[in-house]
Specification:
It is a single chain. The chain is of the alpha+beta class and about 190 residues long. The chain has one domain: 3-Layer(aba) Sandwich (Aminopeptidase), CATH 3.40.630. The chain has an eight-stranded mixed beta sheet, with helices on both faces. A hairpin with a 6-residue loop joins strand 4 and strand 5. It binds coenzyme A. Coenzyme A binds next to strand 5, helix 5 and helix 6.
Length: about 190
Amino acid sequence: MSKAYEEFDHLETERLTLRPFTEADYPLILRISSDPQTTEYLYYWGRIGTTPESDARRFLDYAVKNWKKSPIRAREFCLVLKDTGEAIGDGSVEWVESEPGTAEIGWILLPEYRGKGFATEAGRELMRAAFEIMGADTVIAHCDSRNRPSRNVMERLGMTLRGIEPEARPAKRLGEKNGDECTYVLTK
Ligand SMILES: CC(C)(COP(=O)(O)OP(=O)(O)OC[C@H]1O[C@@H](n2cnc3c(N)ncnc32)[C@H](O)[C@@H]1OP(=O)(O)O)[C@@H](O)C(=O)NCCC(=O)NCCS
């Protein structure tokens, strides 16, 4: 593993530590996957044929497996409050295979930790990691166009709306329309 990538083991912000997931984080992931409001706009969660348990298992296996891969393609970070040690959500950064030099970032918080700036704080550090550790020249973030809280995070991070692709996000439930997908971008 390149030396620079070792820095991924030491990401932190003023109030948060961003650390690898372990099996002990299963309850946090299960809480995320069990809450329909949290997963409403996350199309890998809560799809037909899955259960909260199967989604949590799939996510945790993916997060742990990717941490060991070299070179890095994707990393999921458990967001932990420095003050109390509580695990409060997920932050992610990954290379976009179809766009060389571009990394994508993302975030999920448990409901009771929203409205305190934690996603923006983590997002800023994920963006720094994408530019400085991974060497990306562009950082993007995607979300369903109706996901105003996530769009607000992107805007607070200084990202600008690159476009909205109609019906690009697969519907999770039968009979529902696909969601429109926003892409926000920031170049180095
Ligand atoms: C998307 C999501 C992470 C955004 O969470 P959030 O709490 O709104 O975002 P932040 O943590 O950055 O908090 C920002 C809010 O905290 C407020 N705030 C309070 N203290 C703050 C501080 N010290 N610093 C910055 N903001 C602060 C801000 O004013 C803002 O409030 P507002 O939304 O009323 O304007 C959350 O809604 C979520 O987990 N959704 C479900 C999962 C999801 O959809 N993820 C995105 C997938 S693309």
